[in-house]
Amino acid sequence: MLKVHPIPGKDPWAHGAISTAEWRGARLSDILDAAGVRHEDGLHVAFNAPDVAPEASPVQAYGSSIPLSKAMSEEVLLAWQMNSEPLPRVHGGPVRVVVPGYIGARSVKWVKRITVQPGPSENYFQALDYRILPPESDPGTAKPGEGISLSSVALNCDILVPGDGAEVPAGPLTIHGWALAGDGRGIARVDVSLDGGHTWCQADLQPAASRWSWRLWSLTVEALSGPMTLNARAWDDTGVTQPESAAGLWNPRGYGNNAWARVDVNVLPRRVMPRP
Amino acid sequence: MLKVHPIPGKDPWAHGAISTAEWRGARLSDILDAAGVRHEDGLHVAFNAPDVAPEASPVQAYGSSIPLSKAMSEEVLLAWQMNSEPLPRVHGGPVRVVVPGYIGARSVKWVKRITVQPGPSENYFQALDYRILPPESDPGTAKPGEGISLSSVALNCDILVPGDGAEVPAGPLTIHGWALAGDGRGIARVDVSLDGGHTWCQADLQPAASRWSWRLWSLTVEALSGPMTLNARAWDDTGVTQPESAAGLWNPRGYGNNAWARVDVNVLPRRVMPRP
Hints:
Largest sheet of chain A: 5 strands, mixed
Strand content of chain A: 35-45%
Strand order of the largest sheet of chain A: 11-18-17-13-14
Distance between the termini of chain A: 33 Å
Number of helices of chain A: 3
Oligomer: homodimer
Helix content of chain A: under 10%
CATH architecture of the largest domain in chain A: Alpha-Beta Complex
Structural class of chain A: mainly beta
């Protein structure tokens, strides 16, 4: 989105901030059941953390919430173990929330209080920050609750190999990437295009590790020398695919970009390929 | 999609086949509970109808299925009343299935048998017809189960007024349309563009009649004389919006087009406007 229009004050994560892990803990629904929470429509479950965020206005500790209906689903955990090790401090140990299918900001680290309440969290990050504002909005004067609150993650994919700007030899080129469907959906197909989206080839999908983790894909194409643009797009199991371009998705806080993946590479004739 | 590439054998519904109705009947989940159906993951509920479809290969009666998890949701009905009248024969009377949020083909008319089974329906229309095939596929030789089975309806919107090709007077022009979010989601915003999607204005949303019906919107703009293209796009309450163009969505059976709505009109200078 930064290539479309500047977004002041935001770090460009680009192809980063993507990972998967195996979590172990207690189901949040079991905790809420034990606390006698009744399942009523429209309730929310708010999480309070101890980390004070200087960028919040006013300065405050981090907090956020999810709908009670999501909190009661079997996939939402209070996790104390990550990849078979005690949860490291930097990842939210001793105990953090894990909300599969939702933006990371809802998986609150170092959680210290859980509240069932009639409305969503009024914390700065939920009421003001993690929201899609219309393009003409000024984030500096936006009011709490303005815009669309981010919740479940949208269908998306990216190209991992080759990297953006890479130099690759002419000949067979294997492209690797990942894809993730929205909340509770599966990836049905991933397409790769070498001509800007005019024609597409289907990539090979690796089995899904779980319905909540990204899915790896790969495709081998014939790379001809010269500049080459690689695009990728995913389809979910209901037949939905991604928007073409970030231009139509641009918003003042730079969230929710799920446009086609794009990587530009330079294909070198075999004889001038530099030695590794 | 027909403007992108021909689709033999399909009727262009264009802006048609859009309506809403008030349904009354029994919850399918109550019927299944009464029949002693146990809630196991991966089961499907198949519906058989008596109407024989000559276009099916081989010729067979209509049938389709939905996942048991959807069948057990409170919104799925066996309906015998439509808009406070007994369900007319042409709409599936005496009893039809109504599956809100799913493609119409799952709301089976004149239902005569309901089967809980391990896999989806093998009926021609589910296994072969209502599927998104890759662009290069030949529908004539596609095998059962190929492509992506249509199920929940994707986020979409359309412009109802003015109609495509309409002549309208210069000056204030009120644009009306509808928007529908995917299965169980809400519409958060509808944008209208007069410059091909470069800039957008937010439309006014009417209250939703229910979370399953489309939502009306309107916006008054200033129409300047000459040809004018109107685009509209919707955002759902998770921050997802529609793809830009049908070109990237084209598929051999012409399904699932949820690209931006587009209507072309001719704006006449006030003095040469024909009298009604």
